[in-house]
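Table S7 (text form). Paired inputs.
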Amino acid sequence: MDYSDTRLGIKKFASTLKSFDIEFQPFIEEINTKEGVIREFADAATMERIRSMAPHVVLVNKAKSNANIQISKEFFRILRQT
């Protein structure tokens, strides 16, 4: 096999790939579009889940704040006794 045969083989292979690309391009574009829509829905669902957790986070932060206040009061009560 000489160099010209190799070039011919490469051109034929490239031509086949190009026709494959042209033939399936609409399908690829549709898949990319649908992937974008699915990604948007997934992001929205994730954000909704985060939003639904917000009241619980507020309650936990309040409880933590109340616990810190109680610990501080107890610390100063013990400190005054010594």
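Next pair, protein 2 of 2.
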Amino acid sequence: MLEKIIKYKEFILILVLFVSGSSWMYGIFATKSYVKQVRCLMTAEVEVSLYQIKFKEIEYDIRNTEEQLGSIQNTANAAVRDQLTKRLELLNALKSDTIKNIGEIASKVTSGEYLDL
């Protein structure tokens, strides 16, 4: 038995090198599914970042509108006050939608649904 192994040692060595090299390449280089997962997660990250920027802008607008509304509460200009109140309601609705969209993206990522795009 040992004589047969010694006789074919070069062949066994080549076979072992080929198998180990193949497994090394599979472990090192990204597969298509891994690349797809990374791409989807990066897309989700970009979307969340955009919604976070939008959220900060909306909060800034809400603060400014509240300040304007507070400064004109004592004036008799009801039309401007109504306009600012409607703007504040719209901004609060946008803020709620933005929070909802961020939550939807997060739930899609955690459930794996986002990776099926």
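The CA atoms of residues 79 and 102 lie 35 Å apart.
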